Amino acid sequence: MISYPPLNPVALSLGPVTLGGRTFGPLSIHWYGIMYGLAFLITHAMVKSQVKRRGLPLDDTGVADFIMALIMGVILGGRIGYVLFYNFREYLAHPLEILAVWHGGMSFHGGLIGTLVAGAWFCRKNKLSLLEMTDVTVVSVPLGLALGRLGNFINAELWGRPTSVPWAMIFPTDPLGVPRHPSQLYEAGLEGLFLFAVLFGLSKLQPPKGSLLGTFLLGYGLIRFALEFVRNPDAHLGTVLGPFSMGQLLSTPMVLGGLALIVLAFRRPATTSLDEKASVP
Fold first, then answer.
1. Structural domain span for residue 62
2. How far apart are CA 145 and CA 148, in angstroms?
3. CB distance 181 to 159 below 8 Å
4. Which residues, listed in sequence order, are joined to residue 129 by a DSSP beta bridge?
5. How much is the pLDDT for 278?
6. Is residue 80 part of a domain?
7. Which residues of the chain have pLDDT under 70?
8. pLDDT tens-digit readout, 26-81
9. Into how many domains does the chain fold?
10. Phi and psi of 11, rounded to 5°?
11. What is the pTM of this model?
12. Using CA atoms, how far apart are residues 191 and 32, in angstroms rounded to an integer?
């Protein structure tokens, strides 16, 4: 067994400050929030580089607006997805808690839907190719996922199921205090670094439009489905369909949708592009 490192979820604490007779604070900056910020900065830099390389009609201000639309999609979609998929009855009984995002509760699958909707809206508004913009953006997404999972690890949350493997850890937030899979690190490595390497390598080959998005959906869906067998299910949900968790149910449409996108991308004639005819989501 490996000892869980002495990590503090709070990166920086600022004590109360008095200005004009009013006291503000204390303010705590958490590593998880820093990871989100780094993810968006990396995405912005990579999208900006790809837009210039491909000669797309989007200036630096347009790229910033696009990233801001995606950020709103991630936050709103992630929160709404968590409410609908993971704790609907609780939020139905206490609807004001939906706004209490500082209490935690974000869904990756909801955030994905939110970004796709926000991206489709932006592309329609600016007459851009949706498939090309998804190919430009999706390569950087796994790096953001890796950072997010590292944030989960620092928070000692979303840990794995009990195990006796040599690298098991006892997480300080675990009420049972048993050795568990450090599943956050598995996800950071596979959903994050490995999937990024695959997408980055494929992007250099200039594959058909939409195939990178399809590869991401397929790859993430398969990896997430497999890792859910070692990740501890949400305590208030458990498994929802036999041995399968909510994460596995939500990942299944991703796998099917990814396969469909890849097939359609390679079957589409090279001289035509549906999304170029009309930037329709």
1. 27-277
2. 5
3. yes
4. none
5. 39
6. yes
7. 25, 100-104, 270-281
8. 788 889 889 989 999 999 999 999 999 888 899 999 999 999 999 999 989 988 98
9. 1
10. -80, -35
11. 0.86
12. 17
Query: 27: which 2 tokens?
Result: 């303010």
Q: Is residue 16 part of a domain?
A: no
223: which 2 tokens? Answer: 């990896």
For every residue of 64-91, which 3-state class applies, written as one string?
A: HHHHHHHHHHHHHHHHHHHHHHHCHHHH
Residue 108 phi, psi dihedral angles, 5° rounding: -60, -45
> Rounded to an integer, what distance in angstroms lies between the CA atom of residue 142 and that of residue 75?
17
- Closest Cα partner for 106 from 129, 66, 73? 73
Decide if 84 contacts 110 (C-beta within 8 A). Answer: yes
Taking every pair of Cα atoms in the chain, the longest distance, rounded to a whole number of angstroms, is 69
Residue 66 lies in a domain: yes
Q: What's the confidence (pLDDT) of residue 274? A: 37
Q: Is 6 contained in some domain?
A: no
**What pLDDT is attached to residue 118?**
95
In angstroms, rounded to a whole number, what is the distance separating the alpha carbons of residues 213 and 219?
Answer: 10
Beta strands at 10-14 and 27-30: parallel, antiparallel or unpaired:
antiparallel
